[in-house]
Amino acid sequence: LNAPQLQNMRFVVEGHTDGVGNKQYNDQLSAKRAQSVVDYLASNGVNATRLRSTGKGFAELLYPQDPKAAANRRVRIKVGV
């Protein structure tokens, strides 16, 4: 994220959970997961003003056919606006 060609770009860090548990808990967990990655990146030299975190909970399961799949618990970094 600190490569010269990316210096003018902003990023959204999305936290995701699996489909187990209630919505409120998973929304909070995914937000904490994303913020944890933002904190890590910032502590390793990425300008925090270029990063925004958001929690998606279980709204966008990677494997909706298997809501308990470990792969649903993830963080995704996207180019932001």
Describe the structure.
With 81 residues, the protein is α+β, with helices and mostly antiparallel strands. The chain has one helix at 23-43; strands spanning 11-15, 51-55, 75-79. It has a three-stranded mixed β-sheet with strand order 2-1-3. Helix 1 (23-43) links the parallel strand 1 and strand 2. The two termini are 15 Å apart.
Largest sheet: 3 strands, mixed
Structural class given helices, strands, pairing? alpha+beta
Distance between the termini: 15 Å
> Strand order across the biggest sheet?
2-1-3
> What is the C-alpha radius of gyration, as a whole number of Å?
14 Å
Report mean pLDDT, rounded to a whole number.
97
Short description:
With 81 residues, the protein is an alpha+beta fold. It is 26% helix and 19% strand.
Key attributes of the depicted protein:
81 residues; alpha+beta; 1 helix; 3 strands
Which secondary structure elements does this structure contain, and how are they paired or packed?
Blueprint: E1 11-15, H1 23-43, E2 51-55, E3 75-79
Parallel strand pairs: 1-2
Antiparallel strand pairs: 1-3
